[in-house]
Amino acid sequence: MLTLLVGLVSCQKEELRSGLSFEEIHLPDIQARKGQLSDENILATDSTGLVLEICEILLYRTNSGRYGKMKILSIDPADNYRLTVQAVTYQNDGTIFSEAESLEIRGTYTGDLDSMLESGPQNDFHWRRENETETSLDPRGSAVFAHY
Question: Within 13 Å, how many C-alpha atoms sit on residue 28's CB side?
Answer without folding.
Answer: 1
